[in-house]
Amino acid sequence: MKYLPLFADLNERNCLIIGGGEVAAQKIRLVLGAGARLTVIATKVNNEIRGLEAAGRLRVEPSVYGSQAISKFCSSDVALIVVAEANPLDAEAWASWAHKGGFPVNVVDRPDISTVVFPGIVDRDPVLIAIGSSGTAPVLVRRLREKIEELLPSRLGRLAQFAMRFRNAVANAETNIISRRRFWEGFFDGPVARLVLKGQEHQATKAMLRIINGVGRSTPEGSVALIGVGPGDPDLLTLRALRAMQDADVVLYDRLIGDKILDYVRRDAERIYVGKAPADQSMNQQAINALILERAHTGQNVVRLKGGDPFVFGRGGEEMAVLKEASIKVEVIPGVTAAIGCAATAGIPLTHRDYAEGVSFVTGSTCDGGTEPDWASLATLRHTLVIYMGVAKAGVIGERLVEHGMRPETPVAVIENGTLPDQIIAHSTLKTLGVTVTEQCIGGPVLLIIGDVAALSREESRKADAHIERYAHAF
Question: What is the DSSP letter of 136?
Fold first, then answer.
């Protein structure tokens, strides 16, 4: 994120706009709409700007340059400078002076020398929505604004003002902050809000007073959502997962949950890292269970984020059992498990009539200590094998499967950081699996796909490489 989106209070603040043409007029409308005291600096202005000057809405000053401009116009209380000057050299000079003076400056169509940029604006005052592209694609921003304009009711601002009238009354009736937030969530999704949006504010006021007078002061009931967020790509999040993440009071997240996923969590929700790695556990499972119970008992909406799917090697079943035993309301929201997501991005069909009658998901983390998978049965199945958490024992896994009858030359796809931009796919065989992982410095997170279908990914890669080479030779 190159720019931090902020809303600037320009009411009765001094602002400068350099330029007197149509582009300058467009910026003048916006800045005046925010209540600024405006000075336009230009040798010539169009009729619209001249009319605003005549109405006393702004003042026009002739252009001056160099140190004179700084001393005459750039006093310490200037809140914003907008350069809408057609001459590129003049525009750069103004920007340079603004930078030296430490003033926020926007140079139209020059994000490279601007310190602030104008977003696309959807105005339902007091509700404002700003859309930006860091100055890279203003036409795209305009298209997005048009789409959002179509979606939002025209009386949305009236709804915000209506809610403001009752804020103190609701705060007095609902002293618990969590209960208060849920009250407002119910309000904006409910029939009273619909009355306001229809323009029936008198009926809405009566209904709102009935609701407030009937509100109790009990502690809200807590709940837990066990959410699978997929293998890493935020585009694989489900709509149901997004809704639950936006309703969270507190979020407990694992080691494999990336920042791009966490960006979809409600901004003011508390975040608690509970990641576990083979040699480093910030919190063991018993402590995690206790923390989830503690937060749910205080009435919070607890969201537990897990990579992939909660019920596929995610210990979601254990957490659900603990919550049900404590009579805590729990919802399980499935996610795209790593096997499905990684195989899809690698172009590997896990089942195929010619190669695999089924697929088996196996964890490789039990190879040292505990009970190992039933390698004898797995080796004889006409199945694709998908090994989770197996990179540390990749060589051992290959040896075990060969020992129990699987062909040494059986193809293996080693997928690191599956579905992410830095995804790596290494091709190997059972016989050379350990060597491949070591030589290519593959660390994790890693998924192993074993079976004839794994060769299909390699074949697609070869075809793509051949196509690129033919294309390059053509030129």
Answer: S
Cα(154)–Cα(132) distance, integer angstroms:
22
- C-alpha 154/C-alpha 110 separation (Å) is 33
Question: Over the chain, what is the mean pLDDT?
Answer: 89
pLDDT (tens digit per residue) in 3-59: 899 999 999 999 999 999 999 999 999 999 999 999 999 989 999 999 999 999 999
What the block records as the tokens of 367 is 């190879």
67/253 Cα distance (integer angstroms): 55
Give residue 73's domain range.
14-118
One-letter amino acid of 398:
G
Does residue 128 lie in a domain region? no
Do 166 and 102 fall into the same domain? no
Q: Which residue has the tokens 């902050």?
A: 177
* Same domain flag for 317 and 382: no
Banded model confidence at residue 216, pLDDT cuts 50, 70, 90: low
Q: Both tokens of residue 104?
A: 């926020």
Helix or strand (DSSP H, E) at 286: helix 285-297
Q: Tell me 396's DSSP state.
A: H
H or E, element range at 131 = strand 127-131
Q: How far apart are CA 470 and CA 371, in angstroms?
A: 51
User: Which residues are the active-site residues?
Assistant: 254, 276
Q: Which of 313, 330, 312, 333 is nearest to 321 (CA)?
A: 330
Between the CA of residue 321 and those of 91, 134, 194, 406, what are the distances in Å? 66, 47, 40, 38
CA 355 remoteness from chain centre: 38
Task: Name residue, tokens 């904006």.
Answer: 188
User: Which residues are bridge partners to 127 per DSSP?
Assistant: 124
- Residues near 64 by beta carbon (within 8 Å), at least 6 away in sequence: 41, 72, 73
Overall number of domains in the chain: 4
Percent of the chain with pLDDT over 70: 90
CB 178 within 8 Å of CB 249 = yes
Provide the token pair at 123. 């105005």
pLDDT digits (tens, 9 = 90+) for 109-136: 999 999 999 999 999 999 999 999 988 8
Q: Which of 344, 331, 282 is nearest to 303 (CA)?
A: 331
Q: Is the preceding peptide bond at 445 cis, omega within 30 degrees of 0? A: yes
3-state SS assignment for residue 185? helix
Whether residue 452 sits in one domain with residue 362: yes
**Once rounded to an integer, what is the mean pLDDT over residues 232-251?**
94
**Is residue 247 left, alpha or beta, with left meaning phi > 0 and alpha meaning psi from -120 to 50?**
alpha
